[in-house]
Design a protein that fits this description.
alpha/beta; Rossmann fold; six-stranded antiparallel β-sheet; six-stranded mixed β-sheet
Length: about 550
């Protein structure tokens, strides 16, 4: 479970620490107060992609840190494999977001996105408005069903997906082979000519032309360079009237003056340094000028080499790197072309066998899917009846399709909330309040079948009120007996079930800031009264007291 959340310089938050209860944590506050910022920060800590826009205006970086208590999962070997310090039951997960990117750390060790994804799969399940939309889409229904029944056929499904990926690769290889086999002999000869032309050039490196151009420029200007550097050397270190001679005289005068006034010591030292540096530079200029040669043979050699390289770049790419890469592609293309007809026949036979194997596995998975679709449908119906939809019917429709990455099944959730209505696709039937209850039902069922510690609901109470709110609050409270729950709500009945009640408020002074308070005693009663009645009155206060 998430014991603690720390936030610094994140959106509208300067510095915030929230210590969560192990059961039901409720977050309330006025619309626009920033409640979702808290939820988003938790989600962001487990995310692999982060925008720098979340950094609070005027700050260099944002930091989100979670302290997680782990009592369900044995992570010792996983931590050792990823070179993370293992601290028993406590895990510290932090995300640092800067203008240049973001870094995730676990117990102080920088980790990659795969580690973060794995930890999220163990510790966190978030239900948001975006996820509600996702759940309505039929293409995700097979994912939800498979997630529910993963302990029953998940291993077989994973094996199937691996084999199907290999099957798709075989099909791609066959298509490439057949396309290659259709090429004419003249085309094959042309490919061989291109390979010989590129390999025959013996390109040293992808920047060979840049290095040669640099050397060419020096050779072409060798006389001028010799003249300029030689002249500079004699100006600095010549016999009469040189710069070093003049500086030496100035230094002598300053040295005499410094012997009379210590305040000139630094100036004296600076002239010593200048003269030493200038002597070094003049020596380098002398050596450069003396060693510079006008090598006509080397000049011609470079020009011829650059002509050849430019010719290759004109034909095979704008850069030598492109020439090298295209050469490899041409070699691969030729290699594929040279496969024999027997290779194609062997591949076709392997594909046929693999298709039969996959179909057998897919049908086994399909039979199990259909069984657990009935189980899940019954459980959802039972939950919906408890959530004030007594006439609701829920069914999972499975039809056959062509062999695909997830098998041979099309899966779609169907629902009817009125006794006079036929079952219809979930996306076409349910209202906002009904969708919220379907989502809560699914989350409750999934939570009971997995080991995820923390479930977060962002406004699960959309579109409900009255007796339905009571039923939803009871369901959430029941779920909180086995899982840590963090939820945002606008319903007093739901908020009253909290084991810990957080109140979010936005303050506006010279800057905007989000503040979070833990409500207890009289403060909590007032918050519930305001939620219940829209304003605090004697009636709403009495109602709030009755809820608690």
């Amino acid at each position: 479970m998430i014991k603690q959340l720390k936030i610094q310089n994140y959106i509208l938050i300067d510095d915030l620490t929230c210590n969560f209860d192990e059961k039901l944590n409720v977050i309330t506050g006025e619309t626009g107060a920033g409640k979702s910022i808290i939820i988003n920060a938790i989600d962001l800590a487990f995310s692999t992609r982060v925008s720098k826009e979340v950094i609070k205006t005027g700050c260099d970086k944002a930091i989100i840190e979670l302290v997680i208590e782990n009592n369900k999962h044995d992570l010792k070997n996983f931590f050792e494999e990823n070179e993370i310090d293992y601290n028993g039951s406590e895990i510290i997960l932090s995300k640092e977001i800067t203008q240049n990117g973001a870094r995730s750390r676990v117990n102080g060790t920088v980790v990659n996105s795969e580690v973060i994804k794995y930890l999220k799969s163990l510790f966190l399940d978030i239900h948001s408005q975006h996820q509600t939309y996702t759940f309505l889409q039929p293409k995700y229904h097979i994912i939800l069903l498979d997630e529910y029944a993963k302990n029953f056929y998940g291993e077989k499904l994973d094996k199937y997906k691996t084999e199907f990926s290999y099957y798709e690769k075989l099909q791609k290889d066959l298509e490439d082979l057949k396309n290659s086999a259709q090429m004419t002999e003249s085309q094959i000869e042309f490919l061989k000519f291109q390979i010989e032309e590129i390999n025959g050039a013996e390109i040293v490196s992808s920047d060979e032309d840049e290095k040669l151009n640099t050397e060419l420029e020096v050779l072409e200007n060798s006389e001028k360079l010799k003249e300029l550097t030689g002249s500079a050397y004699w100006a600095i270190n010549g016999d009469d009237g040189s710069i070093l001679e003049a500086l030496g005289k100035i230094k002598q005068n300053i040295s005499k003056a410094a012997s009379m006034d210590d305040n000139l010591a630094n100036i004296e030292q600076s002239f010593v340094d200048i003269i030493d540096n200038l002597k070094g530079s003049s020596s380098e200029l002398r050596d450069y000028s003396q060693n510079l040669e006008n090598d006509a043979n080397r000049l011609n050699e470079i020009q011829e080499r650059l002509f050849l390289l430019d010719k290759l770049k004109h034909k095979y790419g704008d850069t030598l790197q492109n020439v090298i890469e295209n050469g490899k592609k041409i070699e691969e293309e030729l290699s594929q072309i040279e496969f024999s007809t027997q290779n194609i026949e062997n591949l076709e036979k392997e594909i046929s066998q693999k298709h039969d194997e996959l179909e057998t596995i897919a049908r086994e998975i399909s039979e199990t899917r259909k069984n657990y679709a009935q189980v899940l449908s019954a459980l959802v119906e039972e939950k919906l009846q408890k959530l004030e939809l007594p006439k609701a019917r829920f069914s999972i429709n499975i039809t056959e399709k062509e062999l695909s990455p997830d098998g041979i099944d099309n899966v779609e959730f169907l629902i009817s909330t009125n006794v006079s209505e036929d079952l219809k696709p979930l996306i076409k039937v349910a209202s906002g309040g009904e969708i919220s209850r379907v989502m809560l039902s699914l989350k409750s069922i999934f939570a009971s079948s997995d080991n995820i510690d923390t479930v977060i609901f962002d406004e699960i109470d959309t579109g409900i009120s009255g007796k339905t709110s009571q039923s939803v609050s009871d369901e959430i409270a029941e779920l909180a007996k086995s899982h840590q729950i963090i939820l945002i709500t606008h319903q007093a009945i739901i908020a009253s079930k909290a084991d810990k009640h957080f109140y979010v408020r936005k303050s506006q002074t010279n800057i905007t800031n989000v503040e979070v308070y833990v409500l207890t005693g009289e403060n909590r009663i007032m918050a519930l009264a305001e939620l219940a009645g829209g304003e605090i009155t004697d009636t709403s206060i009495e109602f709030a007291k009755s809820l608690i």
